Amino acid sequence: MQKNRQRGNTNLKKKKKFTHGIVYIKATFNNTLVTITDWQGNVASWSSAGACGFRGAKKATPFAAQTAVRTALQPCIEGGLRFVEVVVCGPGSGRETALRAIYTAGVRLTVIRDVTPVPHNGCRPPNKRRV
What we know:
Its main location: plastid. Part of the 30S ribosomal subunit. The protein has 131 residues and is of the alpha/beta class. It has helices at 62-78, 95-104, and strands at residues 20-27, 32-37, 43-48, 83-89, 108-114.
């Protein structure tokens, strides 16, 4: 059950009103983090599934990622954000849902970049779980 708690830096200061921004989505296996910046990289708003009230395994769900994106985007849209460039990183389950949440929020997507690091047979991966 999602709690009605709003955490994270969702207060948009007066000097941080802008129309073009960058949305960074880091989707891990355990959580989804969303950060919204302007073109210079100054953070305007951020949120995560854990900051939205999800705990434990529920943080890794696509719905939690969607809620985190909505929480982070709301003050920026009120501040005049219209066009965003999206940078997606990580193999988590909230990647596509986070992109859909940005699209349905009424913000125009200009570029979608995937910067997930892919090893060229580097470190040995962790062992598979035996349950």
